[in-house]
Amino acid sequence: MVMSMPTLHRELSLPYPSGQVYAWHSRPGAFQRLVPPWQRVVLHSATGDFANLRAELRMKLGPFYKTWLAQHGDHQPGRQFVDVQQAGPFARWSHQHRFEPQGPAAGSTLIDHVDYALPLAPLSQWLVGRQVEATLEKMFSFRHERTRQDLERHALWQDYPRQRIAISGASGLIGKQLCAYLTTAGHTVLQLVRRPSQDPLEVTWDPVAGTVDTAKLQGIDAVIHLAGENVGEGRWTAERKPRLLQSRVDGTRTLAKAMAQLDPKPKVLISASATGFYGDTGDAECTESSPTGTLYLSEICREWEAAAEPARQAGIRVVHPRIGAVVSAQGGMLAKLLLPFKMGGGGPVGSGQQYLPWIALEDVLGAMEWLLFRQDVQGPVNLVAPQQIRQVQFAQALGHALRRPALLPLPAAAVRLLFGQMGEEVLLAGQRVQPQRLQDLGFPWLYPQISQALAAELGV
Q1: Three-class HEC string of the chain
Q2: pLDDT of res. 1
Q3: pLDDT tier at 2 (50, 70, 90 boundaries)?
Q4: d(CA 386, CA 438)
Q5: Overall fold of domain 7-155
């Protein structure tokens, strides 16, 4: 008996023209947007134009990395393209992407059809076929939901001119996805790099020396400044504390001065800050109008925001998103906690009663897009979810999502011993932050509840 080749077929009806849906898929950030956050897949290289694109992917399978080479073919502009595996984990893989108009209506149907074969079939099909099928179904459910969400959010601003946007910290947790998110919307994104540029869309800068290639910044509409040394990586030694401050102040001042010198000047500088601005607020709720705190982290945030003054003085709109703990399986707090929680060793930090201002990575991206276009917004904006939770509630939600207990606390004494001042200010201090400005703007969170954010990031 000949076993038929397994297939996957999924369709998604969308209220957007087929050409618009195709354009989203054809832009540089689409691949990154379509990789589920719980998977470890990286686009290592890509050559050729979209119709003949040859991509090399690196996939993490358990402790090992597998290379996947794919080639675009059978391209019909605006209607179809096909990914064919040249080398990789499957014996055969052909993925047809089709974009079908829905008659005279403005909508369209996105169709994904995959023919594949496992190596060592039919034995492998009998052993792991159902598991592979379930994995693919889960992956394509995510892909369709991500496509729908992004198109829906971009549609709010589709009547505005496309922007040229420079981003610092583009290789970081937020920066990577923000670059992809904005390029799929049709914007041109320039990445600030601290080495000689190797691409027309790279801009060399040196925040310590206070230099930036202003010629390449000519004609930009906006700068999103995310760069700064990670405050949560290790102890704050006497040598490291000044670097935490200067990495933010120097970079912000360098970009603000450069923007003030450009002609024409960019419209907006979105210069990141953090909810640490408020210090340790206990149970007291704070909004954007609340005073600053007394912690070292508060001082960092104050100086960080103040360093944008040259741009403000030049008449450029300046926004300071005060970002809470970003929930993402790709990095940050959640990524660090996954292993101990999966092993059953997770639990609250300290008393667990400190408030934890948090926000899903996807809502950071959406909020940044709002801040780009809402010309009536300037100054601080709290980028946090509307749900206010304590650290123990986060631990319980993560344990529930992973189907693991969350009963083993990390005592405050151990936090202080292991991490010193960093542990005291980042892990044990808390802020009960209200996203007042976003609520006043009518911002629509994708994941307003921590359970929703964890489910989306972990694929559970």
Answers
A1: CCCCCCEEEEEEEECCCHHHHHHHHHCCCHHHHHCCCCCCEEEEEEECCHHHCEEEEEEEECCEEEEEEEEEEEEECCCEEEEEEEECCCCEEEEEEEEEECCCCCCEEEEEEEEEECCCCCHHHHHHHHHHHHHHHHHHHHHHHHHHHHHHHHHCCCCCCCCEEEEECCCCHHHHHHHHHHHHCCCEEEEEECCCCCCCCEEEEECCCCEECHHHHCCCCEEEECCCCCCCCCCCCCCHHHHHHHHHHHHHHHHHHHHHHCCCCCCEEEECEEHHHHCCCCCCEECCCCCCCCCHHHHHHHHHHHCCHHHHHCCCEEEEEEECEEECCCCHHHHHHHHHHHCCCCCCECCCCCECCEEEHHHHHHHHHHHHHCCCCCEEEEECCCCCCEHHHHHHHHHHHHCCCCCCCECHHHHHHHHHHHHHHHHHCCCEECCHHHHHHCCCCCCCCHHHHHHHHHCC
A2: 39
A3: very low
A4: 9
A5: Alpha-D-Glucose-1,6-Bisphosphate; Chain A, domain 4 (3.30.530)
Report the chain's mean pLDDT, rounded to a whole number.
Answer: 94
Find out whether 379 and 353 touch, Cβ atoms under 8 Å: no
Contact 227, 168 (CB under 8 A): yes
Q: What are the residue boundaries of the structural domains of the chain, listed by start?
A: 7-155, 164-458
Six token digits for residue 444: 């629509």
Question: Is the CATH number 3.40.50.720 carried by domain 164-458?
Answer: yes
Q: Is the pTM of this model over 0.85?
A: yes
The pair phi, psi for residue 110, each rounded to 5°, is: -90, 125
